[in-house]
Structure formats: structure tokens, C-alpha cells
Give the backbone structure.
Amino acid sequence: MGDQTPDLWKPPLKSYWCTYSRAWIDVKHICELNVTEAEKAALGEMLDTCDS
């Protein structure tokens, strides 16, 4: 894991994808960091696992 982006690494437990992706997005937002298209696609896939 370490310094890999969500398009290169996802938590092995799919049940954790929602929490992980939301945390990743929060950090990117707080630190005003850019999101690549590959990250955006991977995060979207992980966000799809969140309950409505």
C-alpha cells in the first residue's frame, strides 16, 4: 500500500472500500491536491459500494 494511489491499490476487503475512498477524497480536498482521471475512476468504483 504505502504511497500507491487507488487506481494501483485497493483495500483487500471490499467492505472497506467505501470508508477508504471517502478518507482518500477528504485528504485530497483538505490538502488541495489534484485527482488524476485514473484515481477518479477507481474512487468512483469504490464509492459505488457505499450504502445510499
